Amino acid sequence: MDMKNSSVSEFVLLGLTRSQELSVFFFFIFLVAYASIMAGNLLIVVTVTFDSHLRSIPMYFLLGNLSFLDMSIATVTTPKMISDFLRKNRTISMWGCMAQMFFLHFLGGSEMSLLIVMAVDRYIAICKPLHYTAIMSRRVLAGSVLLSWAVGFVHTMSQMAFAVTLPFCGPNTVDDIFCDLPLVLRLACTDTYVLELLVIADSGLLSFICFALLLISYTVILVTVRSRSSGGLSKALSTLSAHITVVTLFFGPCVFIYTWPFSSFSVDKFLSVFYSVITPLLNPIIYTLRNQEMKSAISRLRTQHIVSRHFLDNE
Q: What is this structure's pTM?
C-alpha cells in the first residue's frame, strides 16, 4: 500500500452497539460463542484425526478440513469483535484491516470450494457406491483440499491486489463488526466503480452460482436415488440434510451481502455475525448431533482416553 497517498492510518469499527450495557452483554455472549466454536470444531478435527475408522472415510476427512476452516474464519474476526465490546476506541490499523479482508476472502473462498467437493463426494457415495473408494482415493482427497485452498487464494488476491493500492483520505468509519471489501471501498478517495463491479462478480455472483449449483446437485442426487429405490430416498435425505443445511447457512449471508454489496442495508452487520460466528458454531452441532458415526467415534476416543489414563495411574 502506498501510504504517501493516504492520510488515514486506521479505521473505526462501529460494531453492533454503542450502548455500554449491551456491549457487556454481547461481550459474554460472543465470548461463550467463540469458546464453543473452537471447542466444537476442534473436537471434530481431533476425532477425525485420531479415530482410525473415520479417518478412512473420505466424507469425514473433508469434514475435518471444514471444521478447521470454520475455526480459522471465526478467529479472523471474533476475538477482535469481543475485545472491542470493552473498548471505547474501536479502531483497527490500516494493515490490520487489509489482513482481515485478505483472510476472510481466502478462507471463505476455500470453504466455498470445499463445500462443492463435499457435494461431489456425496454424489459419488450415493449414486456410484461400488466405485466410491476407488474414485475418492487419498490422493484425490488431498488434491481436492489443496485445490480448495488454491481457489481461495486466487479469489482473495484477485480483489486484494487492487484494494491495497487505494488511497484513503477520510472518513474512516466502517459500519460493521469487521473490515470487509464493500464497506472499505466506499471510503477510498478515488473512483472505485470498476472495483465495485469486480467485487460483485467475484464474490456476489460466484457465491450465488455456487449456491445454485450445489442445490441443483443435491436435487439430482435425490431424484436419482428416488428413481432407483423409494426406500433409499429417506436414507439419502437423512445423509444430505446436514449438508444442505450447512450450505444454506454459509452461502445465504454471502449471497445477500455480496450480490448487492454497495447498497445501504443495516441488516448487513447482523449477516456478518451470522457468517463469522453463527455458522461456525452450528456446523459442529449439525454434524455431531445428527451423525451416529461421529458420536460413536467420540465415545470410542473418550473410552480409550479413560483406559489409557487408568493404565498410567496404575503403573
A: 0.87
Would you tell me which CATH number, out of the four given (3.40.449.10, 3.40.640.10, 1.10.1040.50, 1.20.1070.10), belongs to the domain 3-314?
1.20.1070.10
- The model's pLDDT over 16-49, given as tens digits with 9 standing for 90+, comes to 888 888 999 999 999 999 999 999 999 999 988 8
Q: Which residues contact 176 (CB under 8 A, 6 or more apart)?
A: 13, 14, 15, 183, 268, 269, 272
Cα–Cα distances (Å) from 198 to 111, 142, 174, in that order, read 20, 31, 20
CA–CA dist 263, 199 (Å, integer): 13
Phi, psi for residue 232 in degrees, rounded to 5: -80, -10
E-strand spans in 4-156?
10-13, 91-93
What is the Cα–Cα distance from 108 to 280, expressed in whole angstroms?
Answer: 12
Dist. CA 150–CA 253, nearest whole Å: 23
Q: What are 124-183's pLDDT values in tens digits?
A: 888 888 888 888 988 999 999 999 999 999 999 998 988 888 888 878 898 888 998 888
- Residue 17 CB neighbours (<10 A): 12
Amino acid at site 82: I
SS3 170: coil
- The three-class DSSP label of residue 188 is strand
Characterise 263 by phi-psi region: left (phi > 0), alpha (psi -120 to 50), beta (else): beta
Any idea how long the chain is?
A: 315
Classify residue 262 as exposed, middle or buried by CB count within 10 Å of its CB (0-12, 13-18, 19+).
middle
In angstroms, rounded to a whole number, what is the distance separating the alpha carbons of residues 268 and 14?
13
